[in-house]
Amino acid sequence: MTIQRLMVIGICLFSFNNTMRTWGQESSEKQSIMQSVQSYVNAFNKRSAVGVSNHWATDGEFIDGTGEVIKGRPQIRKVFEKRFKEMPMNSRLSLTVKSISFVTDTVAIEDGIAEFSGELSEYSAVHKLEDKEWRVHSIRETPIDSQTPTSKKLSELEWLVGEWVDVNDDAVVLSSCRWSKNKNFLTCNVSVEVSGRDPVQGTQVIGYDPSKQKIRSWTFDSKGGIVEGIWTRKKNTWLVKTKHVLADGKLATATNVYELQNANQFTWKSSKRKLDGEALPDTKPITVVRLKGDSSQ
Length: 297
Description:
The chain has helices at 3-45, 49-53, 73-86, 149-154, and strands at residues 56-63, 69-71, 93-104, 107-116, 119-130, 133-144, 162-167, 171-179, 185-194, 200-209, 214-221, 226-234, 237-245, 251-262, 265-275, 278-280, 286-290. By secondary structure, it is an alpha+beta fold. The radius of gyration is 28 Å and the shape is elongated.
C-alpha cells in the first residue's frame, strides 16, 4: 500500500471520526436546548416573570405576534410582569418544537408552534451558548389564524372553561365546562344538590348557529327536561333567553343573566320567568366561583 493511499485513508478516517464527534455533540446540545425550552414553558405557566427573563440573553430581543419589539432582559421581565397580571388564570402556554438547527457551535435556531389560550402562532428562536448555558437571543412570532368562523364567534365564552361552584342556602351547584375538538362547541356538565332531594344532573351544549347568527345552547337534565337558549352579549354580561319543555310537558320561559366579575367569578340570576304563562318571581343573584386547584388554570 502506497504512502499516498495511506494518507487518503487517514484523512477519510479523521473526517469520519470528526463528523461522528460533531453529530454526538449536536445531539447533546439539542437535548440541552430542549430542556431549556421546557424550563421556559414551566416558568411561563407559573407566571414567573423572573424565571422567564432568566432564560434570555442580556441583550435579547422579543418580537411578539402584534409586532411589538421588546429589547433587553430587564424590559422583557417588566413586560411579562404586566402581562401575567392581565392573563386569565386558566390560560397556559404549550410549545411544539419542529426543528433545531445549528448555525455554529454556539448558535442554534429553533422553529416551532406556540399555543396559548386556543391561539396558535409560528415562532423562530435564536439560541446562543453563553457561559456554558443556552440563552434566548431573539424570538419572532407570527400568528396563525387556525380558528373556524364558528369557533371565532364562540371565543367570547372562553372564560367559562373550567370547574365552578356556587353554594347557597338552598343548594350546591357544581359545573364543569370544556371545549370540544376544534373549539366549535362548549360542553358543560352541571350537578345540583338540594338537601332532602335527589341530585339533578344536566348537560349543556353551547354553539354558534350561523343561520341565525346567534350563540345558542341546548340543555338536557336528568329529569327529562329540555332547554333551548339564545345568547346575547352586552360588554361583560350575557343575556340568555330560554324556552323550557319540562318532563311533564309543561312549558316555561326565562331570561338568565351571566355577569362576569373577573376571571374567577361571575354572577347568575334568572328573570322574566313564566310557567305555562303564569309569572314567577325573579331569582336572587348567585355568585359562582372557580374551584381552587382547577386543572384548566
